[in-house]
Amino acid sequence: MVAWPFAVLTVIHRTIILAFNGAVTNDFLPIYTAATNFLNNRDVYLDNFNWTHPHYLYPPSGTLMISPLGYMDYDIARRTYIIINAVAVLIAAYYLLKLFGFGIRSVAFPVTVLAMFSTESVSNTLIYTNMNGLIFLAEVLFIKFLLERRLWWAGVPMGLTIAIKPILLPLLVFPFLKKQWQPFMGALGIPIVLLTIAWPLSKDPARFVRETAPYLAESRDYFNSAISGNAVYYGLPDWLVLGLRGGMSVIVLISLWLLFRYYRHEELFFLCTAASVILTAQFLIGSLGQMYYSMLIFPLLMTVVMRNSVVRNWPAWLAAYGFLTFDMWYSVPWRHFGEAAQFLRTTFGWSLILIVVFVVLINRWLDARRLGTLHEGLDPPYIRDDVEYSKIPERYRYPEGRPGDKADVAE
Fold this sequence. Notes:
Belongs to the glycosyltransferase 87 family. One of its GO terms (cellular component) is plasma membrane. InterPro entries: GT87 (IPR018584). It holds the Pfam family GT87. 64% of the residues lie in helices and 0% in strands. It is mostly helical. It folds into two domains: 1-204, no CATH class; 213-411, no CATH class. Helix 1 runs antiparallel to helix 4 (74-99) and helix 16 runs antiparallel to helix 17 (335-371). The protein is globular and about 70 Å long. It starts with a helix and ends in a 14-residue tail after the last helix.
């Protein structure tokens, strides 16, 4: 009774009011222009990358996929795109909650939907009108299909997103480590097939390789919360940038090794935590990280319902405030402080969440080594011996047996 009215009206407000109203930043206009140009056999890659307006950065395979939008009137196409992404976020929230044992009738569903649509990530995805909602759904479906051993299906959402933007590509490390080749068939086959079809239909596909692809590898100094983006904006020396990126890379690699070594049997916890760490590292250490990418970290935050979650502490949620909040920190009396807080809060948030994961895992490893229980895993006794553990279905927690079982398939 309390949560549903807030959730429903927040969804309507973000989708129908704020998103339909639009903003100065319009990510959809270059998408629509590219779709109409593709359908009319005109040049698609016309951007001047010296300008700061949104650019069209999809490869020819992505152009082919978004081309049906060109058959619609602009306003109808944009509103359709907004609704599709809003529905994608709702479906992703539903499946993510189902993985953790919560149904649509539980209070967790409206609370989660309210929380998601209150964030900058979801709000600006709809307002600016880009496809992050669909990418978030693809991430959740990929995790879901891996957990359910529907390996052929796992490659489908991955392949469809890679064909447009390869932001989820690093997550293919999970089936690679388990020697599961089926997801790679769809993940790599779908983009190749779409590119093969789109290349001869495009008028200027070579310009994507010649001009757009090199631009994607550069660190721009606007709307970029990555370390390199802030370095360009603030003029930081190269040695400092290299040190920051190198230090965060070490933290990430150690965290991923500990997760794989001690938690890979608890697949839901492992996949949601490790996937979020990998993607956060990509946003922070890579060439481009935009705040609304933080939607893809929702799986890590959902693990808070698990007793062994690494985000059951206040610094993790201080970090989440930094990269999720819709608040603006510009200040009239303290202009420089306000601008710095506004520009850097996402970078600090991503950095802090990676540090939190690292510190929690290292502390657990040190405690387990001191107690001589490393062979039982990193979880302290009060978590291992908990009879309730969580509402998570057993098949998602230990689908291949508990650590130490003789019939451990993964070993």
